[in-house]
Amino acid sequence: METGNYIPDRDDDIDGYEKIDRYNNDLIKSLSGHYYEVLKQIGEHPEREGLLKTPERVAKAMLYLTHGYDLNAQQILKSAMFKEEYSQMVVVKDIEVYSMCEHHMLPFFGKAHVAYIPNGYVVGLSKIPRIVDVYGRRLQVQERLTNEIRDCIQETLNPVGVGVVIECRHLCMSMRGVQKQNSVTTTSAFTGEFLKEKTRTEFLNLISSKLS
Ligand SMILES: Nc1nc2c(ncn2[C@@H]2O[C@H](COP(=O)(O)OP(=O)(O)OP(=O)(O)O)[C@@H](O)[C@H]2O)c(=O)[nH]1
Ligand SMILES: [Zn+2]
To answer: Smallest Cα–Cα separation from 173: which of 107, 98, 102, 96?
Structure first.
């Protein structure tokens, strides 16, 4: 369902964009109704003053947190590809990741490090964090998020290779369930030159990351 091209910067931005399917008033109203029921069923009183606008706020927030479904990552990359004879590794590191696990719909968050070796074309640097968001702002597992970013860059830009490393903390593992507050999950995905140890080591050295 990758249709739209509007990228809201904040969930407030939803106001005034009724023309975009995802943020239409009917959908916000319908979702709000469901969240009203959720509030009741968890033992709250949705009519108390502090909660009066909560169902609508949550509905808008949830639409924002999943707006990646409306975006087309390949289109975003294609919109800023430039012919350039640069053939060394390009690394964009420490890109903030915010996503939600598809099992509990709880956040996972951390950093992504993305690299590629151009093959005649480079891509506008900002587009790399943008595609991290396109796939991150959906219900995800960290492994699929990692692979989707890799595949999108490989298929669109056709570089000599792509490397993606993501490190995240999962709230479903810290505030509930196994309750491990300090565990960090690292995933990686590579293509082409990055499958060779020398290139992968160069990439891993360049990011030498520390999520504190
Ligand atoms: N592989 C993977 N697993 C994830 C991710 N996010 C959450 N999970 C896991 O998904 C699993 C779901 O397991 P279930 O046993 O069905 O769910 P649960 O009973 O709530 O599991 P606990 O979290 O262990 O209480 C858990 O082990 C989560 O830690 C992710 O991005 N990747
Ligand atoms: Zn989870």
So the answer is: 107
Distances 182 to 102, 175, 211 between C-alpha atoms, Å: 21, 11, 10
Q: How far is the CA of 105 from the centre of ligand 2 (A)?
A: 6
For 6-46, the pLDDT digits (tens) are: 445 554 444 333 345 677 889 999 999 999 999 999 999 99
Q: How far, in whole angstroms, is CA 212 from its chain's centroid? A: 20
Domains of the chain, CATH where assigned: 11-69 (1.10.286.10), 81-207 (3.30.1130.10)
Name the stretches of the chain with pLDDT < 70. Answer: 1-21, 209-212
CB distance 112 to 50 below 8 Å = no
What pTM value is reported for the model? Answer: 0.90
Q: Which of 106, 141, 172 to mutate to test the pocket of ligand 1 (most atoms within 8 A of CB)?
A: 172
- The span from the CA of 212 to the CA of 200, in Å, is 23
Write down the pLDDT at residue 64.
Answer: 92
Model ipTM?
A: 0.92
